[in-house]
Structures are given as C-alpha cells and as structure tokens.
Input
Amino acid sequence: MKAKLDLTEGDILKGLISLSLPIIGTSFIQMAYNMTDMIWLGRVGGKAVASAGTAGFYLWLSFAFILVTKIGAEIKVSQSIGRKNWQEASEYSSTSIQLNIIIAFIYFLVMQIFKNQLISFFKLGDREVIRNSVDYLNIVSYGLIFNFINPLLTGLFNSYGDSKTPFYFNTVGLIANIILDPLLIFGFGIFKPMGVYGAAIATVLAQLIVTLLFIWYIFKGNNFFKNIKILKKIDTQKSKEIFNLGIPSALQSGLFTGISMVIARLVSGWGPYAIAAQKVGAQIESISWMTAGGFQGAIAAFVGQNYGAKKIDRIKHGFNIAIKLISGIGILATVLLYFFSKEIFEFFIPEKETLFYGIDYLKIVAYSQIFMCIELTTAGAFNGISKTLPPSIISIIFNLLRIPMAILLIKIIGINGIWWAITISSILKGIILFGWFEKYYRKGF
Output
C-alpha cells in the first residue's frame, strides 16, 4: 500500500500545490456555508444576520473541540504513513474517530441544556435577535455530529495525501446549502418562509449529506480507510498521544473563540448593525484566512510525512517555498480589502447602517493579512514536527492582549479601536512565530 500522494519524494512545489489547492478549496467551501447564510440573511436584514452570527459563535467554539482529535490524528497518521506503517495509521484513525464522536455528543448536550444562558452572555438587548439566536442554536446543535466528523475525516484524507476527495464531497454539501438556503429562508412552493430557522436547517442538511458521502466512500474504497474500526475498544495509549498533541491547539482555538465572543460583547455596545458588520467582515476576511489554512494543512502533511521519513533538508526547503507562496496571497488580500472595502462589503449587506461599520473594519484588518497568513502556515510546519505548543503559546498570549488593547483604544478612537486591536495582535503573532520556527530550523529540529 502507498499514500495517495507521497510527499517524501518528487518535486516539492508541485507536491505542495497539488495537496494544498483542494485543501484551500475545501476551506473555502466551509467558509461559503456561512457566507451563503450571511448573503441570504442579509436580504432579510441586519437583525437576522446578528441572530445567526451570535449563535454561530458556538459553532465556531465547537471547532476547538474538533481540533482535540483532528490535530493529533493528522500528525500521527501522516508520520505513520511517512514510515510506511499502514496498520498504525489505521489504528490512530480509528481512535480519533471514536473520541470525536464522544466529544460531539457531550457538546450537543451542553448546547441543548444551556442554550438560553449561552445566548444571554452577549447581552444583545433586542428580544427578536435573542429569540432567533436561541432557536438557531437549538436547530444547529442537532447537526453537531456531522459538524464534528466532517473536518476530522477531511484531515485524515489530507494526511493520506488525498485532498481531492474531501474537496468533492464538501462541494456537494455547499451546492445543497446554496439550493436549500433561499428555499427555506424565503419559501417557495411547498416550503414556507422560515427566515433564520431555514438557514439553520439548510446548514444541518448540507453537513449530513457530506457525512453520508464520506461513509459511502470509506465502505466502498480500497485504501487504508477500509481498516478503520470504530466499534472496537478505545486504545487508551493512542488516545493519550492524540490528546497530548491536540489539546494545545484546541485550547488555542477555544480561547480565540472565547476572546472573540468578549470582543463581540464590546461591539454590541454599538447595536445590532455593528454586530452584523463584525460578523460579515470576519467572513469576508476569512477568504485569506481559509487560503492560509489550506497551506497550513498541506505543509503539516508535507512536514509530517518527511519528518517520519527523517528527511530534514526537504522539510526546510518545503517550508521556504510555502512561505513565499502564502506571502504573495497575503499581499493580494491586503490590496483587495483596503482598496475595494466598500464594493466587497456592500455585496453582502447593502444597509447603510451596517456598511458604515463594515468599511472601516475591512480597511483596518487589511494591514494584518500577510502576517496572519505567515502565522498559520508556520503553525502547520510546527504541527508536522509534533511541536504543537509554540503556535498555541503565541496565539493565546497575543489573542488575550486583544481585550485590554481594545478597551484602551475604544476610549481613544471608538469602535475602530477594536478593529485595530485585532490587527496589531495578528501582526505580532506572525512575526514572532515565524522567528521561533526559524530557531528550530537552524538547529535542524
């Protein structure tokens, strides 16, 4: 048996591009789920966007728990494949799926029991927005199992060198979401208008379709996935290894989401239109974030396989190539967000009240795009060598600094101080994490 794409041999640039493009495409598709909701709900109004956006923070938070199994599994599976140990790769995959399902069920119970308290945290001050946020959270929680398992399976396929299959499956899910969103939000024929609730149902159904496609492929395929067994007893040693690697990234992601929720609470002082501007602005900015995330996944798999094969010089060369590619993308993102902020934001929400805040948001975060791209790509390289702690430490420290920085800057320049706090911290994270990896780089790992 051999990897779908053996990253330990051949042209590095070609290998990275071949693996990263479908990952980037898959990342865009994941982003497009929310984008599609925001576009259609934007036609309903800023309050509808604020409702879905507020509840969406808890879907975002769930990704931290997904990372507990996803990061550890990606690292161990890619390194096992680099050593050509297929049995070990299958065992790590099986264990990660078992843990993923258990965590998803626990998160579902928390969402169901505490949904009212979770939404009340934001102190929205608008009964309609509060009610719709609670209902949206209630509906999407029933699809959490699909929301958890799809990213994990995507990561396992990437580690195997097959990033195209997850891209195809997630594309089908996006198409389903694009079709269902307007039908369920505005109604058509037998479908009655459901507004925010329709967007939630469309998202759950689309994610279900993706999960079913993965299951179908695994059962009919002739690859190492056919050896995955999730009904066997959980391997405690492999569980420990997966947790040890995944928890730092999960803590980083969870704290990042929690900090973003505190920031959102600060933004809520300017009303629902400011909340909507932040939510949509973040979705627009995530175009470059998702692209960098694709390179992060590719460089993690590349470094992981070569680290397992003990090809250190190849790791160094591949990292340099990835940084050059992602820097170009970061510069392009800066130009687009700064010079076309009005045109881009207006496409999503034409309301003047929301547009007022949204343009400033995009112009300010534009300055940080190249540094954010470098940070994510470097984090992927760290993950590949099993060093998940450095990216987590840098991210946690500087994300935490966003809160006092925002509070201070608000007093000076109002709500724009919040956007500047986000930008400044992103710039510092990119510079420092890159320098830290260079230190490992020079030592030869």
